[in-house]
Write the structure tokens for this entry.
Amino acid sequence: MRTYGVAVHGAGWVAAEHVRAFAADARARVVSISSRRAESAERVARETGHADALIETDLDAVLSRDDVDILAVCTPHDLHPENTTAAARAGKHVLIEKPAALDLASLRAMRDAVEEAGVRTVVSFVLRWNPLFDVIRAQLSNGALGRLFMAEVDYVHGLGPWYAQYEWSRTAVQGRSSFLNAGCHAVDALRYFTDSDIVEVSAYAVSGSDRFEYPGTSVMICKFANGALGKALSNLDDAAPYKFRISLYGDEGTMLDNRIFSRTLPGQTDYAEIPTVLPDSGDVSHHPFQGEVSHLLDCIESGEESHVSLANSMNTHEACIAADISAAEGRVVELPLP
């Protein structure tokens, strides 16, 4: 069995979870932890029990190492394109924290670099490995919902100074918008459940947030290529516990989070609850990074493209950008963007 060397670049809130996830898979070995400040990388190394990992502040030095096969990009959002492009050109596979990019030009440039290099990528829409998502996909596959014609996903996560990334993610330069900063999880979930790309977006945003340099709450209505409709909410202004609400409507049944009502269950008189783990926490320690990391390693070994690769995730990011355009300009925006 081959062992893949991993470098984790960026030492913020989520970096330690990436280190732990890779360390838990026998096919991976954490070689390096890097950051702009050595003390930040050293802290992550101590927290995760990787005192022997190389501590580095120069990404180019990390990418030049022959024992590094994978780069996990955990830097602030605006640095993801630069880091990903550098990794691809160095022939490294890349796990990219979401959002992959904050603007269309950067998004397309990094996609082109990855395609040219032929490396495998995963964009960290980590909730795809949440057990509830597995339950929902199983019900969709077995026909319990029939043809899905409407999907709604709400990302409700009030952010403030307590949040480790708040000081930079609240800015227009590094956070950009509610959907790009965090609500892209909801948009990705819509695409995952409908199994279709978004082709049209209309959105509104609530202005005047005192927490962010952009509207903290946005809502989009979208149309999918397969004819289904979708609604996504990104609410970073909320003053209540984190919630990731999912509502799916099909011609044979409905799912509200982990509750299901279906015509395929004769005699059912009310929603039945399926016991499972819900995506009910914004704490990164609750997120299933182990499944995501193992999936990336599977893709590298098989040479197959991930279902959440950078190329696959282009539509999610374009839809978020389209929502920002629609809210700002008061018009419907068609995808793909020109």
Remarks:
- The domain at 4-124 is CATH 3.40.50.720 (Rossmann fold).
- The CA atoms of residues 111 and 311 lie 6 Å apart.
- The longest helix spans residues 310-329.
- The chain has ten helices and 15 strands.
